[in-house]
């Protein structure tokens, strides 16, 4: 008896699996090169590197942790994940019947001129759909994929937040270094202006030399105001990312070394890209679109529902729960769509187009991710060489630069060597120049005056 029941259950499971209209998911093929153009494959995976190990500065690690706790965008991504999880729980409960307590009373005239009464109390199952053709299973699969996609989206938001906080931190450090350079340059211009004015008062210099010295000084003073504004904008951006005002003690020290970051292993393209949360999220969206096709296909087949109840019924309230009043009802129903004005076909067409859109978005996500990684590797190699060349140029300029003299020409062409080296420090080893809220690499030294360079 036990073996026959087991065989019956297995046969029923096989029948239901065979009736499922859910298409088999196949990951779209992606043509990726064996390695990136810049930088060969290295041991390890970037996905295995924790952000705590990537960020080398203790102060920056503290701010990143505060941002992970307070950032509103990350909080929204987390709440969206929780919402998708709750929606998946709803779909996961669909295959099971909903059992409720039902009580009913009915009084109506009978054929003898009297009133007939009927009362019932019991447990009831209303319109429980038996999923022979996989409609509910397909919807459950789509909800699960949507939940997993939002989870990967939360991971991607967290990685982006860590990157944004690091960039904002470097913005503040860059603004501090450029601000120090500008102050040194302004002090030099003011000294030169005083010497030029003294020579003008004694008749040694012309009025043109004095006006040029004044113009250079005011240009440097205007640049100082711009750098002060840029620093405040960088701090404001950091405040938004962290989710609260950043205390002065939490900001990077003015002349401290730029924050260090650990080297990220490159790996082979297939491992790097398929491990990225944004790629995984796009793939889960594709899985969800594939499952929607199964639900749309199942709508063409009969929908079988079951309504049942068990309890007690009597013609009087006092007769409830007495012997002989117990019973049950069972009412199966089969509904086969015959005419729906093309609704089911339109739903299927929409699901199939949605699946094609998801494939295109998945492929676009991989292409974008490959470009981002390739650009980062190319920039790391090229900008590192550029940094070395700039450092060599600064060293050579320090050996050949004449001392600052009282002559007007010296006042127009001088540059303090220490300030120039501070400007070069704005670029990190990876060649990533972080400007004050500009986002791009900015030249470390020049202060532009009206029609001439103040720092050569």
Summarize this, please?
The chain has 456 residues and is of the alpha+beta class. It is built from eleven helices and six strands.
Determine the fraction of residues in helical runs and give it as a percent range: 55-70%
* Terminal-residue CA separation: 96 Å
List the secondary-structure elements in sequence, H or E: HHHHEEHHHHEEHHHEE
CATH topology heading of the largest domain? Outer membrane efflux proteins (OEP)
Descriptive notes:
The chain has 2 domains: 22-95 and 131-301 and 336-453, Up-down Bundle (Outer membrane efflux proteins (OEP)), CATH 1.20.1600.10; 96-130 and 306-335, Single Sheet (Outer membrane efflux proteins (OEP)), CATH 2.20.200.10. 57% of the residues lie in helices and 12% in strands. It contains 11 helices and 6 strands. It has a 4-stranded antiparallel sheet with strand order 1-2-3-4, with no helix packed on it. A two-stranded antiparallel ribbon has the order 5-6. A hairpin with a 2-residue loop joins strand 5 (448-449) and strand 6 (452-453). Helix 4 packs antiparallel against helix 5 (135-201) and helix 5 (135-201) runs antiparallel to helix 11. Residues 401-456 have low confidence and may be disordered.
